[in-house]
Amino acid sequence: MAFAHITGTGSALPQRILDNAGLEMIVDTTDEWITRRTGIKERRIAMIDKNESTTDLGALAARRALEMANVPANEIDTIITGTVSADRIFPSAACMIQRELGAENAAAFDVSAGCSGFIYALEMANNSIKAGMAKTVLVIGAERLSSLVNWQDRGTCVLLGDGAGAVVLRASDVHGGILSTHIKSDGRLWDLLYSEKGNQPPPESLNGLATTPFHLRMEGNRLFKQAVPSMAHIAELALQKNGMTREDIHLVIPHQANIRILQAVAEKLKISMDKFFTNLDKYGNTSSASIPIAMDEAFRSGLMKEGDHVLLVSFGAGLTWGATLLRWSMSPG
Ligand code: COA
Predict the structure, then answer these.
(1) pTM of this structure
(2) At the top level of CATH, which class does the domain 1-333 belong to?
């Protein structure tokens, strides 16, 4: 049976930075509150007039991953995009990105699994490679959550940001790459985080922000309490399944929602926070994009080398959560 190896990573962030001081001008909040409760200092906000739609960001991240992997777009068999903020209800972001890339031989579709979208997409990609259905799969996480945010709701607008990340997976007989994936959902708790109809305009200071008629609603406190045990449990499942212990893990790349969630997960797993890659201070929570952006940054800054065991863990709306254990198979540079 073939193994799915990551042979390229890429990411794309909007140019515009909205820091906590900028948010103080929009809602009743403070840099101190946001930093202490979340660890977030700034986030990126996509501007449509700067060609930063979900499709644009996803395609740019994908191009960078394909370039690293040295794979021409016409060799891609499948494009899977994890997203909750595609530019249109249909067609999928994946199909729109396909056109941008000229990936004429690919089948393309989206996966909607809240902030776990990338891990769910990776699971689909891994299974299709293992089953011999595809040899080259492009997996993308791309989001423009600023378009869904209620900019009058200080409980949510301070948390989120825009961006995209992508990986190229190639089939190989060599043991390694994705060792296992686990995904879980609990639809009984869908109403802890969802989108609803709303029509508040975006703040004037964010002129150029394209919004949708839908807003995000969240019960942050209850979500927090679900996130910690769910992420810790599924991470442990991934270790057990591979006969590994926490000492075998070189790097954890978690969904970047809140530094306090990650500290609590690290404590539960008894894995040092030093092994957790975080960049949520710069980008906030970018939903499905957070793990592939973090993976790209971690790899390009030399934090992962061939043979390292890397654990990806996610949690999001649905509720959904998941874990992927990788034996990294690319050398830096
Ligand atoms: N600035 C200042 N005060 C704020 C605020 C903001 N941006 N947002 C909320 N508050 C206030 C609340 O109104 C509340 O005030 P009160 O005590 O007078 O009622 C107080 O801060 C505490 O609110 P609470 O919601 O209990 O805070 P918290 O410690 O749970 O932190 C979150 C809030 C959202 C940061 C936290 O619950 C969280 O991160 N949850 C998980 C969210 C998440 O990860 N979602 C995505 C899942 S993928």
Answers:
(1) 0.96
(2) alpha beta
